[in-house]
Amino acid sequence: MTSVGTPEAEGPVSRPPVFFEQPFWTALGLAVMSAGPLALVAGVGGYVPDDDKLAVVVTGIVLTAVTVVVTIIAVVGTARDRRVWRDLDTAGVRVLGQVTSAERVWCGEDRCTRVRMLVTVPGRPPFTTSHLVHGEKIVEVGASFLVDVHPTRNVFRLADDLSLGESSR
Fold this sequence. Notes:
Elements: H1 23-44, H2 53-91, E1 93-107, E2 110-119, E3 127-134, E4 144-149, E5 156-158
Antiparallel strand pairs: 1-2, 1-4, 2-3, 4-5
């Protein structure tokens, strides 16, 4: 809740990335994920000395279990993000979000603007949302930006790119 009693919404701001749109992270993830099964195969297959066999097998089992859990979490999260994105594509309503505050902040070594917006959906109570706009773009208080909102849930995404400054008045 914000200080004025308007609920804060949660939702995707940008389309969820597909695994192969990030080749470095995909390759790193596959390398890390294969460590457990490879250690398990090496321990069971006799590729390690007998003194270390038990430790390698136990390590392989633990790493394989962690790999399975992380994979399940990633798949379920991605499926949820895609479902929310499809919901916005099919049932979304495009409305204007009004910038209520814009504050320059540091994000890492760069400067960003923290923007809070009030979004009003017909037939529903308004809600607020906040975003970090990267770069030197100055976002003015009172500016309006297009937002896609689900008509029955507090799920939204920006239709305008705030960093480009394409705003509607």
